[in-house]
Model the fold of this input.
Amino acid sequence: MSAIKISGRLGKARIALITVTVEEFDIVRSAFDLKKNLSETPYYFSSKKGKSFGLVGCRAPGQTNVISEQVAGAFVEDFRPDYLILIGTAGGCKGRNVKLGDVVVADYIDFSGYWKFKKGLVLPRKNPHDHPSHFLHRSHIENLRVEPKQWRTHVKTRRPKKKGTPPVLHIGNLVSGDLLLGDAGNPTQKFLVDHFDKAIAFEMEAFGVARAIFESRSFVRYNPLFLIVRGISDFVDAGAAKNAEMRKEWTKYAVSTATAVAYELVKRLKRSKMGPHSGGGSTK
Amino acid sequence: MTVTKHRLLRKAAFFKEPKPTFDLRLGWSRKYDGIFNDQFEESTGGLEIFTKLSRNGRVLILGPGGGAKTVLLKRLAKHSARRGYIPVQVSLKKWTAKDYDEWKYLANYSQCVDFLLLRFANVEITSADLDSLEVSSTKVMFVDGLNEVNSLVAGQILNSLDEFVRFSIRTWVVVSDRLARRELKRPERWKFALILPLVEREVLKHIPKYGKAREFWNAASSATRTLLRTPYFLDSFLRHGAVQATKAAELKDFFERHAANPSDLKRIARAAFEVYEAGTRTFPIDKFRSIAGTSATQALISARVVIRANTTAYFDHHLKHDFLAAMHVASNPKLWTPATFNRITFRGSSFDTVVFAMEQLTSNQTDRFIRSLYDWNIYGAGYALSDGRHENVSLEMSTVIHAMFAERRWDLIAASAKAASDVLHQIMTPLSKKLLTAKALNQVLKIIKIQKSQIEWFLSWQALFTAPLDSSTTDSDLRLLTEIDSVMGWTSANVLRRKNLSERQQKLVRSLMRSNQQAVIRWRAAHVLGRFASVANIESLGKALADGSSEVQYGATRSLIELAARSGGELARNVFTRLAKAATKLANQSNVVNEFQRALIIDRQRAPQGWTRLALPAVAAFQQATAERTSREEWDRTMERLVSTYGY
Done:
């Protein structure tokens, strides 16, 4: 059986990169050499052959899962990427062994924006969505966690504070909601951090991407794999003033460490012949 | 080749183009605005849509009734088959009342698309069947007649198709619709095309056998030329060699020639009106027959004007049905009520009937008709004046309608402002053009002030409408709010919003909203209060959300959002907290929910800081209180629009 190449409306991209803020996008564009703009679209790429792109990147025009779902959905429709990686920052949980500048690659995504208030109780409700690719975790991320030197060499930004240990890659649960968690004293924020007691990172876009990927699985021969790679720029269990200060100081570095992990991953994916559409056999 | 693919290709190939064949052209735009303002990015031949489809995947073809939308879609389906694409043709013409009932229970886009395919496609097929065709095949769904269903369902159909093509491999969709602005989930992913009126050369090419074409054309009135540039009416002219002054006269002539003597025609018209009760183009043939009479019904069936399918039937072109229903309404002024207008327009979805009724009235009836329409839906009145029909209405009445739309261009709620501009563009009179150039409301007042008339009621209205902005209000100004005459009453409500009202006067308005016997007065009062931000007004409007009248609830919802937008900060938080608390009770009231979702999108320049975050608690509360999946998704869309318009 030969491999089936499924293209989108604008072409075929092997790997899609999504970021959210301008700062994130600038660092990612520079790291991946995404200099060329595809005319009249928000997409940037480094090279292409006809309508075939190796790597395409774009920035979501704003925070929240609603927007990231739109952007990821549009990416799927336009390029049918094999891999989709969301790169950016997240709030970490200080009390859960995560440091500023560390990288969290999510293995499980919880959505924190759907609850039912009933007779004094707050009951969680669920919307179906995908989770990050087990294949990518098993084949690449675990190895990058064990051998961090492989990606640390790609970190291009200086650490804000000289003292401290090098960045570490964590694999763990991530919570995605539509609230910017900037005040540890806020009761809602406290509730969310306590409720998701195993989560090590909190952000606002992963669920949107996971939802779009889930919806895109309408065809048996299209199997996109995705990952969420987040550098820790602040702590959700730190006070409001401290949080803003931290974020200002650490964001650039956190984006850089997350980008470094993504960069090493992309390098491996480009080399690798294994993947969701490698075809070439059966499991008989 | 699979059997399904073969059948789809064969069905499209069998389409026999009606003769003569007209050369149709399309004007293209990336936005609805370009279509409504006649500002096209390019114009192309009718078949040149495939480049757009390959890039966008979604094309919406708009056109007036009789503009050849159905013929063009069939032509495109045939052409797609020739290019190797697989065309699936879906016609909504046979949508029935039962379909509305069942549609409500569909849980997601996939079920909606399957419903459309299984009920209305030319081949029995599902979305899974389409997906199972080989990957290299491009599938094109042609959905004809979105205007055959009500506005709510039309919007849901478009958004279901949007989702469907978003995730289906190599799948495109082409939809035909009347000239209407729909709420699209992802407007940037659609391409819009308007079927342009036939060019003069094309008309002249077809008419020489009726004498010297150029001389005929030069002698024709502008109304006749407009008619002949519409494919349906040019075709009719070519068949019968005569052309009437209006679309309605043309259709009356058709029925007199084909199917009926004058007394039969009256009965047929009544039957056509009665069977619109169900809100669909299809109807039970027995009911129609019992009113129209056996022989008249049989004559229509024999002439293939009415197409019978077992116990139901439908007209071969909806314009014929619309004309007949309008004929009955035009000749019965007692029927000029909101209930009738809702019936014949499918609740404001299709205004062809209103237009036909307008064309059949004598000049001394039109003003009254326009007033009745105005009482029901200002857009109905606007469309009744478009395409030159304003000439049948008194200058005074026409000016009133123009002025009302011109004022709305500055409405805080973006959709209202946009719709008002659309109507003024469609009316296209010297006055509407002038009003469209106004840069501020003050200029509108100046333009209206210089309109000359000797008619007493108009002079009173003119004085009221052009009252200076931010001037003080007298108690007699306030009393006009309770005026029985709707033009004066509503103008007063609009004018009060531009003036200063003391706290005592606002209290009077609150008391009107609370206790006046007439719902329309309570509605007007709610409308006025939306201009004056205060805790007392917020409380009062909050209570009006529980009013027994849906119009008052609608007005209160809209005014509450306006108050939040005007004040921002603490008062806005107060509004949204109040709405959030009422969410459980209100979440299933479609009029409140629809207006809430629509009104949240306000003019970006005037939005207070942090508008999205202010609104978020109420949006979330309504979403939490909504059980139905599709309605929950509407709230997602609202959130999406808020974030993309105002940031987070």
